[in-house]
Amino acid sequence: MTAESQHGSLSFGPWDGAVDAQLLDTVRRSVLAQAGPVTDLQVAAAVRESGRLLGAAGSLIAMERITAELNGLGPLQGLTKDPEVTDIFVNAPESVWLDRGSGPERVAVRFAGESELRALAVRLVASGGRRLDESSPCVDVKIASGYRIHAVLPPISATGTLLSIRIKRRTILTLAQMVNAGSMGPVFAQVLESVMTHRLNFLISGATGAGKTTLLSALLGLCPPRERLVLIEDAAELEPDHPHVVTMEARHENAEGAGAVDLAELVRQALRMNPGRLIVGECRGREVRELLMAMNTGHSGGGGTIHANSARDVPARLAALGALAAMSPEAVFLQGASALDVVIHLALIDGRRVVAEIAVVELRHGRLDVIPALTLSDNLPGANGASMGVRIAQGPGWPPLAKRLGLAGLLETPSGQGMP
């Protein structure tokens, strides 16, 4: 099969010519009848014992397809070979999409029918220790192979089984690499490095897929080796290049509705672990109360990510999350003003993930306000750090931030204009 897109052509292997439903079922039954995990040797033996004359190439194709059906993502497995693919979406048996950072692209991968798609979703969820059925039709789970699976069954989904797969890539980027890739200008990188050095508390905002986790990992990699990083996540995704990292992951309730451990509880536990920096991978619920309280009690240099359309929308988002923890907006604003120092906003512009703004947090007239310090304007940063005419607009938040970071002369040029 092949998938054509604006980025070129991807080849995922001519599986259908070598593997039919009968062979797949025969090998599956043979392998699953044996105890223990499925191995390549067991699959090869089962293919050989099936009596099919496939030849060397056909046998390899059959093994690849059958192994994917038993242990991997089935017909979707070939899509993961492209290292740029971060997400796979299945809206229907004949509607499969992927995302390589520039938005969804439709690909020429098909399921035989709804039953095959549903069987794959059920198997993937089961491999993560959860159950997907009529009593639990919506499930989000991380499985051992590094995929984060979200599945929805009818009638919650009006069109059939929905399957979303996020692929955990182990590539760890540095700020320098992000500058070279055009994700930020050198000035932004210098300011962010200084933010980490001076242990300012921060939130990284942006929409889904804007690169918040990637940037957070890069920033944590700047922390001194002697610091102990305690990471709190709903699903472990952060992998900072740092020698002392402790990660705690939330646990969903079991089939009996018990055993859940949420992020709020994990933040409370983390405070007893002497964290050098406390990081919440994504603030999405009542854990925001514990995080703000921690930042207000001497835990500096901490932060996390939050979904928001812009930096200015962060206070409203915090107020909404605080309501889940029975906090009034006034309480959220007071806590946030003393807890947070900086908001770093990411945006997806023309298919590119970029650092679009750095802002400071202040309390004004009883409300939490985000004051722009540096904002990306005009063109985007180019590859290898080239400016391409980019200018950084200075906002009213820049003078106090620059003074605090010791960067007061950073944007001064003979012409008096901000440089990239």
How would you describe this structure to a colleague?
- This protein has helices at residues 21-32, 40-49, 55-70, 114-127, 175-180, 186-197, 212-220, 263-270, 287-295, 314-324, 329-339, 398-405; strands spanning 2-5, 8-11, 87-92, 95-99, 104-107, 138-142, 147-152, 162-167, 202-206, 229-233, 245-249, 277-280, 303-307, 342-349, 352-364, 367-377, 391-394.
- By secondary structure, the chain is an alpha/beta fold.
- The protein folds into 3 domains: 1-71, no CATH class; 78-169, 2-Layer Sandwich (Beta-Lactamase); 175-405, Rossmann fold (3-Layer(aba) Sandwich).
- Strands 11-10-12-13-9-14-15-16-17 form a 9-stranded mixed sheet, sandwiched between helices. Strands 5-4-3-8-7-6 form a 6-stranded antiparallel sheet, with helices on one face.
- α1 crosses α2 (40-49) and α2 crosses α3.
- It is elongated, with a radius of gyration of 24 Å.
- The two termini are 44 Å apart.
Question: Which terms summarize this structure?
Answer:
420 residues; alpha/beta; Beta-Lactamase; Rossmann fold; 17 strands; disordered N terminus; disordered C terminus
